[in-house]
TrEMBL record, chain A:
NDH-1 shuttles electrons from NADH, via FMN and iron-sulfur (Fe-S) centers, to quinones in the respiratory chain. Couples the redox reaction to proton translocation (for every two electrons transferred, four hydrogen ions are translocated across the cytoplasmic membrane), and thus conserves the redox energy in a proton gradient. GO terms for cellular component: plasma membrane. Its main location: membrane. Gene3D superfamilies: NADH-ubiquinone/plastoquinone oxidoreductase chain 6, subunit NuoJ. Pfam families: Oxidored_q3. It comes from the Bacteria. It is found in: Cell membrane. It is an enzyme of class 7 (translocase). InterPro entries: NADH_UbQ/plastoQ_OxRdtase_su6 (IPR001457), Nuo/plastoQ_OxRdtase_6_NuoJ (IPR042106). Belongs to the complex I subunit 6 family. Its EC number is 7.1.1.-. Keywords: Cell membrane, Membrane, NAD, Quinone, Transmembrane, Transmembrane helix. This is NADH-quinone oxidoreductase subunit J.
């Protein structure tokens, strides 16, 4: 077991514990904050695997933007400060979801573990190489992604807009 | 030197935890937490293929960037839908009947 393996195990344990608490805690705000811990653990694991650009983007986008967005949505939907008693699930549902998660984890592990054969030398792909490939080989998917982000922005505005916000004035103007 | 067993186990555990979160939550916003965990499991697996030296065109670094971008767009649209539903029905309970009276 090398130092890299130890570092990976540490960040992996952090990610799994954070994820476990994020899906089991009954405080809704705590769930979003435990997700931050889990994602930081994942970012550490990616850093150990040698993908520092992906790890930084993960922290920037997931922790910086997505979790803040989730927290805003929780506040806008009037999440309670204490335990969320309005959305409790019964013990059978909890047991079923745990079994479903265990089954999917076991299925993935049985498929993937035979493919993981032995230790490998860590491949160091530098940011310069990634940038060259991103704007060379992958440039069309990259441009399509910018269109997707624009569509998501406009679509989110259109969906979340108050439907009667501009209607009375329009109706007044028409009549 | 790094053993490839670690990333594989971490990815399957994260996906399992995410599926647990998706199946066991009634709050619509917290379902998204499970979705994020599943996607981060996919990220770990993609980067692990790069660390194993089996990628061309730096795909192990570029595809995770694409996955992160698509996940951000997905979360934005999903939260907009959740807010619209909350405004119309006053609740984000996923177990509530869909044909119930608005606000009931």
């Amino acid at each position: 077991m090398t130092a890299l393996d130890t570092a990976f195990a540490a960040s992996g344990v952090l990610a799994v514990v954070g994820g476990l608490l994020a899906v089991t805690t009954r405080h809704v705000v705590h769930a979003a904050l435990w997700l931050v811990v889990a994602l930081l653990g994942v970012a550490g694991a990616l850093l150990v695997l040698g993908a520092e650009l992906v790890a930084l983007v993960l922290v920037l986008v997931y922790v910086g933007a997505v979790v803040v967005l989730v927290l805003f949505a929780l506040m806008l939907t009037r999440a309670p400060v204490g335990p969320d008693l309005a959305h409790t699930v019964g013990p059978w549902r909890r047991l079923g979801s745990g079994l479903l998660g265990l089954a999917s984890a076991g299925l993935l592990a049985t498929v993937l573990v035979p493919l993981a054969d032995g230790t490998v030398q860590r491949a160091d792909v530098g940011s310069q190489q990634v940038a060259g490939q991103l704007f060379g080989t992958w440039v069309w998917p990259f441009e399509l992604l910018s269109l997707l982000l624009l569509a998501a922005l406009v679509g989110a505005l259109a969906v979340a807009r108050r439907p009667d916000a501009g209607a009375p004035s329009r109706r007044r103007g028409a009549s | 030197m790094i053993h490839t067993l670690g990333p594989v186990l971490l990815a399957s555990l994260l996906v399992g935890l995410g599926v647990t979160g998706i199946a066991g939550r009634r709050n619509a916003v917290l379902v998204l937490v499970g979705v994020e965990l599943v996607l981060s499991g996919a990220l770990v697996l993609l980067v692990a293929t790069q660390a194993a030296g089996a990628d061309r065109w730096a795909a192990g670094s570029v595809l995770p960037l694409f996955v992160v971008t698509i996940a951000a767009a997905e979360v934005v649209v999903a939260l907009a839908v959740v807010l619209a539903v909350f405004r119309q029905r006053g609740s984000i309970d996923l177990d509530a009947r869909s044909d119930a009276e608005p606000g009931a």
